Amino acid sequence: MSNESGKIPEQSLRMVLVSACALVDADGRVLMAQRPEGKPLAGLWEFPGGKVEAGETPEDTLIRELREELGIEVAKACLAPLTFASHAYADFHLLMPLYICRRWQGTVQALEGQALEWVKPARMRDYPMPPADEPLVAVLRDLL
Length: 144
Hints:
The strands form two sheets. Strands 4-1-6-5 form a four-stranded mixed sheet. Strands 3-2-7 form a three-stranded antiparallel sheet, with no helix packed on it. Mean pLDDT is 92; it is low at 5-9. By secondary structure, the chain is an alpha+beta fold. The chain has a single domain (15-143), classed as Nucleoside Triphosphate Pyrophosphohydrolase. It has helices at 58-70, 134-143; strands at 14-23, 30-34, 45-46, 49-51, 80-88, 92-101, 116-119.
């Protein structure tokens, strides 16, 4: 099926909502997590978070994901919206709000076998990241 210009319209991509968090420690470093083997984009570094499930807000997702992935407790009031990413991958379109969090309870641990690094914002470009995460680095560098 083509439109008036004779071009075939782009296939509509399904929208995937993922919530991410820049955890910032007292030294101004940001936590980066490496995607484990067996997952799409394995080996790339990203901000912790995950897919927003039905009935969840992006903040609820982060509270759940940070507990499951890192073993920390975050209060909704400590999650501040910072910016977002919008990126078309081959088979879906990702919309990802990025929150910043400076306060949490507990000690960050890699509960899902992922590598973790606390990274100064000026060094974040040294870590290969998924395409959707890359534009977020400039915002964090400017803020921190």
